[in-house]
Each structure stands twice: as structure tokens, then as C-alpha cells.
Amino acid sequence: MMNIYGHFFSMPSNKVRLCASYLGLPHEYHHVDLQSGAQMEPDFIGINPMGRVPAIEDDGFTLSQSNAICKYLCDLSGPSSFYPEDAQEQAVVNQWVSFASQHVQQAMSRLFFNKIVAPMLGEAADENSVKTGENMLARDLPHLEAKLVDNDYILGEKITLADIAMICALEPAEMVGLDLDPYSGIQKWRETIMNREFYKRVHAHFGAEMNAK
Ligand SMILES: N[C@@H](CCC(=O)N[C@@H](CS)C(=O)NCC(=O)O)C(=O)O
């Protein structure tokens, strides 16, 4: 059985977990305690020498980097509208996966680190970094909103890997106090996905596992 390694506060880890859940791929999930440095322990370094989550081990094959892992999971699962075979349709999904990872998630990471992680570590928040993150979101979220205002999902009526990548980037919205009031399409889309069974199989919301660890 495939093993998935992650942490509940890791947006890319949740992306891999939600992708595996959506595709219905049997796997065992392992929490890697980043706070105690478990990612640098020899057992985990054997799986990902870069010492980061997420990572997977599938019958001796190991892989890291959430987007590469998700594409591998899609390939294992076979062609579907979730990750289309057609070159142009697949390229558009990849475009939105990159937009989610490189822009929206990077912005959210600034907010998450400074508002949640820094206080946990007893470090001072970098307000300039927060402001930069907020400005990045103010620039990029209207593009997402434009796709969702008349559509159930980013690329139309069917959910794709792009939705999983994007929902993970925005999962900590409540925790970091991101105001989504101006974005009714994004709010409706988040609700739709968070109410789907594949999402609830992973968790009720971002950080829900916190008290269980
Ligand atoms: N681009 C990578 C990001 C991986 C990453 O930065 N993971 C963080 C958690 S979100 C991590 O494991 N940090 C532990 C460390 O740097 O020691 C992906 O998409 O998988």
C-alpha cells in the first residue's frame, strides 16, 4: 500500500492527501512532526533526502514535491476529467496548479507564517511580509473569482486537480483572518468542495487534526 507523509499545517501535504482521497487511491497517511524535527530523522530522510513534506513511498518508489506527486497519483488512477489527457486541457489544469502554488499559496504562506507559526515559535511577525502577502492576494484572487462566479469549479462544471491545488492554498483563510467577503464565487466554491465526501475523509477543515496530535 502507498504511504503518504505530511503535516496538517502543510498546504502541499493537504493537496496530496485530498488528491489521493478524490482519486480513491488506497494509502496510509503518516504525520511527520515538523516541530520536533522528524523530517530530518534518518527514517524520513530515506524517503525524502530534502527533508520536507509531503513525500510518498509506493512499493519502494519514493517521490517528493506535491505537484509531481499529484500528477503521479493522477497517472496511477488513469485518464479522467480530473486530469485530462488532451494536451491543451491538461496544460490549462497545469497552469492553474502553478498559479495556485506559485502565487496564491506563496501569499498565504506569508500570512500563515507570520500570524500563526511565528507566535508559536515565539518569533516576531514580519509585518512587511504580511502586507506583501495581502497585496499579492488582492492582485490574484479577482482572477480566481472571475472563473468561479458562474462556474462550480475553476475550469467549468467538473472538478480538476486545479481545484485541489487552489483549495489547499486557501485552506488557512479563516485561521489567518483573510477577508473573503468580496469574493462570493470563491466562498461558494470552497463550501461546495469542503462539503464533498472526499474532502471530509481527510479533515473537516484546515488544522482540524491539531488537537489530535
Ligand atoms: N514545493 C514543495 C514544498 C515543500 C515544503 O516546503 N514543505 C514544508 C512544509 S509546507 C516542510 O516540509 N518544511 C520542513 C522544513 O523545511 O524543515 C511541495 O510542493 O511539496
Give me the CATH architecture of the largest domain, please: Up-down Bundle
| Unreliable sequence segments | none
Ligands and ions found: glutathione
Tally of contiguous helical segments:
9
Give the helix proportion (percent range): 40-55%
Span from first to last CA?
23 Å
Order of helices and strands: EHEHEEHHHHHHH
**What is the domain total for the residues?**
2
DSSP strand count:
4
Quaternary structure annotation = single chain
Widest sheet, order of strands: 2-1-3-4
What Rg do the Cα atoms give? 17 Å
What is the level 1 CATH name of the largest domain?
Mainly Alpha
Biggest beta-sheet profile = 4 strands, mixed
SSE-based structural type: alpha+beta
Shape: globular
Overall pLDDT, averaged?
A: 97
CATH topology of the largest domain: Glutathione S-transferase Yfyf (Class Pi), Chain A, domain 2
Percentage of residues in DSSP E strands: 5-15%
Keywords:
213 residues; Glutathione S-transferase Yfyf (Class Pi), Chain A, domain 2; binds glutathione; 2 domains; alpha+beta; globular; Glutaredoxin
